[in-house]
Amino acid sequence: NAGVMQNPRHLVRRRGQEARLRCSPVKGHSHVYWYRQLPEEGLKFMVYLQKENIIDESGMPKERFSAEFPKEGPSILRIQQVVRGDSAAYFCASSPSGADTIYFGEGSWLTVV
Amino acid sequence: GENVGLHLPTLSVQEGDNSIINCAYSNSASDYFIWYKQESGKGPQFIIDIRSNMDKRQGQRVTVLLNKTVKHLSLQIAATQPGDSAVYFCAENKAAGNKLTFGGGTRVLVKP
Question: What is the pLDDT of residues B88-105, one digit of tens each?
Fold first, then answer.
């Protein structure tokens, strides 16, 4: 997981607020992935992005969740109108292409109160 | 649906002994498998991977075995150390893209 930077590491939001999680991939990596992990569970795929494109968003909830990876800047996972069930660890990963091993960041822990 | 799962949720092992962590998968079309280690409060750390055209792959103190006949994957850790205490996940990667499917995890506790 060297080089994938996520922030904030910990975020507390009240129900109804918005959460924005940021991910800077390893330098030179143009593929970014977001995964969610509930306590004592494995990671669940959410979305796969390349620069300015969403490749696969089959794991994203249909409402309130969105992701982007602009030409410049970090990838953003945005959760609108958060609910308690959104409390989880959100991990970003990156790879240089779509067929390489992916490397994870240290995660962003979201707590909704 | 097809998934990747683990046999044992918790494994206690004496320091210095070998550890074996097992994983079953059900998708015979999977062509790439990865083991990750996750320490508390941290992200998954890549340990070792194996492609479906291989039966065995060795790394430093770790060996992954793939049995495609029974769709079984195992991770062997030699001379387990306290620093090996963590949750270990197997993950399955299909050919198209890096959409990993993770198993539920096995917690390894190393006793001094």
Answer: 999 988 755 578 888 888
